[in-house]
Design a protein that fits this description.
- This protein is α/β, with parallel strands linked by helices and 887 residues long.
- The protein has four domains: 189 residues, Cytochrome Bc1 Complex, Chain A, domain 1 (2-Layer Sandwich); 205 residues, 2-Layer Sandwich (Cytochrome Bc1 Complex, Chain A, domain 1); 187 residues, Rossmann fold (3-Layer(aba) Sandwich), CATH 3.40.50; 177 residues, no CATH class.
- The protein is built from 31 helices and 18 strands.
- Strand 14 and strand 15 form a beta hairpin.
- Helix 11 runs antiparallel to helix 12, helix 12 runs parallel beside helix 17 and helix 26 runs antiparallel to helix 27.
- InterPro entries: Metalloenz_LuxS/M16, MPP/UQCRC_Complex, Pept_M16_N, Peptidase_M16_C, PSMD4_RAZUL-like, UIM_dom, VWF_A, vWFA_dom_sf.
Length: 887
């Protein structure tokens, strides 16, 4: 078996190593390709004007002038002036008329473009690479010598007012984002729209535009950028020649960015004539150079973009996209991360039917809260790949590269290389995303802007209340919960639809989902209570694993409540998260035969260990409810909180009764969000761990035989002495499936009445065997750090074999044997007493990868047969002597 383990381990390592090498090879090749991209060269002229370029093998080039000027540098009265100049820039200069300018540009096949934003203005030209010098001269003439006559200003005014009307009527997305900035940054310059109010447009004169240009169009505030078949040295000469005369000093104080202030608020414009509601929700983000900017971009990519025309439907990777497609929440949505020099807006924009506003908004809130706590590594990896793809696609061609150079040099003073951008994206982890989401999203009042039929959009205060309820869920304490399932024969009854068993499964499903969704750090486990109590699933945050085990549970025997509670307690004591609070949720739908005093005694112990217990009692067993009330009262003590009793009468809907209970809602009513294996003996899949499966099966068989022998002797002794046999308690006769130690402790209690500490020690042993964790005593603890994987597993097998062979009352002898036993274990070394060879052969035949006809196995079984025959003859001889002495 050791050789099989080595082989499987070697194959697994080879496979993982090969996959790792392939991924590493791809990543290395990708980074190498990015590092080979042409570098962006940046130089600064004596005047302060910056020149930046990237040489790209292309016959086409883009050159542009980028200026620190935009709506953010305007005041209330001058708002709209920057955009006004954009419309006048190509109307002619002091050297060229408008017609001459247009003919000259068209004769070269070039294209001029101008754009104005909130913090930057750009004038760009696309042309053949050989025409770059001529286009630099034209752009320099446009910004230095604009004509700005009254006739041009009048025509531009009419054009701008017409464009504003068109935007208001047709481009509602832009309208919503203007409203979003207006309400989010109200009272600051960043609330200014690019267009400006109509009153300002009608009042702006040529002198106003000229004064704005003379104030802001200074060399230190400008960047000449180019991309294509362009040389940096040639571009510098062109800048010196055509832009060298631009002033570098200011007549008064140099324009500075004014401070901004984000205000959580809303602005809605109701217009029921529109077919769709257009809504944007955002929180304050970070500046473009902030260290959190990349993690916020990944978070935005994780929410994603979706349109009803997209394929995929419910198979989309984004959870919000899946919900939107499945429930028809919206027509489209897009997550955005707008960054300015010192602040930003992070949020989502969506268009939906009027009746879906509330549902869509609450789904957005849920997804945002999930970002704060529950985002997974896999989701973040997907989002990072999507972000890389989008960024690289946006830099396709000289025009996109030129615009990126201009923006970055204005904001950062340099352009970040692509391989550095890729590295920063790759360094973002799921924990980084959760951290930035907690800082920027969690417990932050958002800004909301909406246009259209928005009657059903929740009121802002209702939105805040719902957000706070989500926060309360997330603020719940860390908790590990064991759910105990009553699978006794009473669960076959049909007084709860469709049966008690299935109704109870719905309740368990609800509890598990509630616990994990309330806090992703929470863990939940599952065990059954009937007859041979079994740990189906150890503590995990994967609810799917628990539900898959729950599906296989069937009614079987009588409830074994006391043992189940003790084992659940032990599972919680051995939880990984020691900062987690402990809770047991017990479903009971069978009459409990325990004395109230026994349960009260157990309640005191659980209270001392700070374990809360919730009991869901159903089936109208009145005596149960009285006993459980005393049990819960002892647990709660003077505080009266922490543990709960929920009684579900016949005729009630199980899930509805639970939803309204403190188990789901919490104490204040603000709630409301290793694997065992059923189907495998002892919760262990023999395909995954054949050694442990064999060890547990053999150990249990030995335990069963020993208990039968002890019971037989106890009965014989009692008959001879004329006393009743010990251990008349029906519950104490049940063995814990998969927990040999628990069965042994029960037997010890029947035979000699072991003390509570000894019983707890044996229950710990039972838990260790059921979960595959063998816990040696301190004196026998080996140095696991210096042991190989094979040696550790061999040691675990040794422990389970020895514990099954030795009496539990001889710990000193066991420690000595554990110290002296060598670490190498093979089939030939396993000496099993009290197990028939036929049974062992049947065990071996069912284990995958084990050949029962091998020489080693036959020798071991043969040796076992001899030992078994010898011990049987000795036992028979001893029994005959005992009978003779009694006679």
């Amino acid at each position: 078996m050791a050789s099989l383990l080595k082989l499987s381990t070697a194959v697994r390592r080879q496979t993982l190593l090969a996959g790792s090498r392939a991924g590493s090879s791809y990543a290395a090749a990708f980074r190498s390709a990015l590092s080979n991209e042409p570098a962006t060269e940046v130089t600064t002229l004596d005047s302060g004007l910056r020149v930046a370029s990237e040489s790209v093998p292309s016959q086409v080039a883009t050159v542009g002038l980028f200026i620190d000027a935009g709506a953010r540098y305007e005041d209330k009265n001058s708002n709209g002036t920057a955009n006004f100049f954009e419309h006048l820039a190509f109307k002619g200069t002091s050297k060229r008329s408008q017609d001459a300018l247009e003919q000259e540009v068209e004769s070269m096949g070039a294209q001029l473009d101008a754009s104005t934003g909130r913090d930057q203005t750009a004038f760009t030209a696309r042309c053949l690479s050989k025409d770059v010098p001529k286009l630099v001269e034209i752009l320099a003439d446009v910004v230095q010598n604009p004509r700005l006559d009254d006739a041009d200003v009048k025509r531009a005014r009419e054009v701008i007012l017409g464009e504003i009307e068109q935007v208001d009527a047709g481009n509602l997305r832009e309208v919503v984002f203007d409203h979003l900035h207006s309400t989010a940054f109200q009272g600051t310059s960043l609330s200014n729209t690019v267009w400006g109010p109509s009153s300002n447009i009608r009042a702006i004169k040529a002198d106003d535009v000229r004064g704005y240009v003379n104030t802001h169009y200074k060399a230190p505030r400008m960047v000449l950028a180019a991309a294509g078949d362009v040389r940096q040295s040639e571009l510098e000469k062109l800048a010196e020649k055509y832009l060298g005369k631009i002033e570098s000093t200011f007549d008064g104080k140099a324009p500075q960015l004014s401070a901004v202030r984000f205000t959580g608020s809303e602005m809605r414009v109701r217009d029921d004539s529109l077919p769709l509601a257009h809504v944007a929700v955002a929180v304050e983000g970070c500046g473009v150079s902030d260290s959190d900017a990349m993690a916020l971009s990944v978070a935005s990519s994780l929410i994603g973009t979706w349109d009803r025309t997209f394929g995929g439907g419910v198979n989309n990777a984004s959870k919000l996209a899946v919900a939107s497609a499945h429930d028809k929440l919206c027509h489209n949505y897009e997550s955005f991360n707008l960054t300015y020099r010192d602040t930003g807006l992070w949020g989502i924009y969506f268009e939906c039917d009027p009746l879906m506003c509330e549902d869509m908004l609450f789904n957005v809130q849920n997804e945002w809260m999930r970002l704060c706590t529950m985002v997974t590594d896999g989701e973040v990896e997907r989002a990072k790949r999507q972000l890389k793809t989008r960024l690289l696609a946006q830099l396709e061609g000289p025009q996109a590269i030129c615009e990126d150079i201009g923006r970055q040099v204005l904001n950062l003073g340099r352009r970040e290389p692509l391989h550095d951008v890729e590295r920063r994206i790759e360094n973002v982890t799921a924990q980084n995303v959760r951290d930035v989401a907690m800082r920027y999203i969690f417990d932050r009042c958002p800004a909301v802007a909406a246009v259209g039929p928005v009657e059903n959009l929740p009121d802002y205060m209702l939105y805040i209340q719902y957000k706070n309820s989500l926060h309360n869920n997330i603020k719940m304490v860390l908790e590990s919960t064991m759910v105990c399932f009553d699978n006794s024969d009473y669960q076959r009854n049909g007084d709860y639809f469709p049966t008690r068993l299935n109704a109870q499964k719905d309740g368990v499903n609800l509890v598990c989902l509630s616990k994990v969704r309330s806090n992703p750090e929470n863990n939940v486990g599952l065990m059954t209570l009937a007859n041979t109590t079994e740990v189906l699933a150890t503590l995990t945050s994967d609810v799917g694993r628990i539900l898959s085990k729950l599906h296989l549970v069937n009614p079987n025997g009588n409830i074994n409540l006391m043992t189940g509670l003790r084992i659940a307690h032990l599972v919680l004591k051995h939880r990984q998260g020691k900062n987690h609070k402990m809770r047991i949720v017990v479903f009971v739908g069978s009459p409990v035969e325990h004395d109230e005093g026994e349960l009260v005694k157990l309640a005191k112990k659980l209270k001392k260990e700070k374990v809360n217990v919730d009991i869901v009692s159903f089936g109208d067993h009145q005596k149960n409810n009285e006993t459980f009330t005393s049990f819960i009262n002892v647990l709660n003590g003077k505080d009266g909180t922490g543990s709960h009793l929920v009684c579900v009468p016949r005729g009630s809907v199980f899930s509805e009764a639970l939803i309204s209970s403190p188990i789901i809602q919490g104490e204040d009513g603000s709630g409301g969000a290793g694997l065992g294996g059923a189907g495998f003996e002892f919760g262990v899949d023999p395909n995954e761990d054949p050694e442990l499966a064999l060890a547990l099966r053999v150990s249990m068989e030995e335990q069963r035989l020993r208990q039968e022998e002890e019971q037989r002797r106890a009965t014989a002794n009692s008959a001879a002495d004329g006393t009743a046999p010990a251990g008349g308690d029906k519950e104490a006769t049940g063995a814990v499936a998969g927990t040999a130690g628990a069965s042994s402790s029960a037997g010890a209690a029947r035979a000699g009445g072991s003390e509570p500490h000894a019983e707890e020690a044996m229950l710990e042993r039972a838990l260790a065997l059921s979960t595959g964790e063998i816990m040696p005593t301190d004196d026998a603890m080996p140095d696991f750090a210096n042991m190989t994987e094979e040696e550790q597993i061999a040691f675990a097998m040794q422990m389970s074999m020895q514990d099954a062979q030795e009496p539990i009352s001889q710990p000193a002898k066991r420690q000595k044997q554990e110290k002296d036993t060598p670490m190498e274990v093979d089939v030939e070394d396993i000496e099993i007493a009290g197990v028939s060879p036929e049974y062992l052969m049947s065990v071996l035949e069912n284990l995958p990868g084990v050949d029962p006809q091998s020489e080693a196995v036959r020798n071991a079984v043969g040796s076992l047969n001899k030992d078994s025959s010898s011990k049987k003859s000795q036992s028979d001889s001893k029994d005959s002597k005992d009978d003779e002495s009694k006679k």
